[in-house]
Amino acid sequence: MLKEKVTKLLERALEAHPSLFLIDFTVGGDNTIKVVIDGDEGVNLKDCMNISRAIEHNLDREEEDFSLEVTSAGATSPLQLPRQYKKNLGRKLKVKTSSEEFEGDLAQVTEAHITLEWKAREPKPVGKGKVTVQKQQDIVFSEIEEAKVVLKF
To answer: Which is it for the CA torsion 40, 45, 46, 47, positive or negative?
Structure first.
């Protein structure tokens, strides 16, 4: 009952803020509501407060006791939705598939796959020494086990 109510309130709140989108939503057995959101231009504290208020102000604590937590997807959280990849175009990603691991700049995002680009040092075809070559890899979303943005400090 509570989950259905919160789902409707959450959908309405996200419709009112089209740049935001849902990453995860759970209601625990002890009525702990946890909502994780992300946004096309990132998420700030006001965004979290707006979503929280849209839910909390429309639930009656006299009817059901609950706790509510609205957070943004953290900087080190894995990317889960194609929409998250689009907002990270140009950034360096570390992507794991079942058979390989890639690290490169996110160059393209389509409905079906992403394209990573990076430079690598390889032996010269003729003679001694190495040469820098531009590499590119298309990775289908269904093959991605985990993808994270690589943070630089």
So the answer is: positive
Say how far apart CA 8 and CA 5 lie, in whole Å.
Answer: 5
pTM: 0.81
Q: 111-149: string of b/e by CB count within 10 Å (b at 16+)?
A: eebbebeeeeeeeeeeeeeeeeeeeebebeeeebeebbb
Between CA 140 and CA 130 the distance in angstroms is 31
pLDDT tens-digit series, residues 20-66: 999 999 999 899 999 999 999 889 999 999 999 999 999 888 888 89
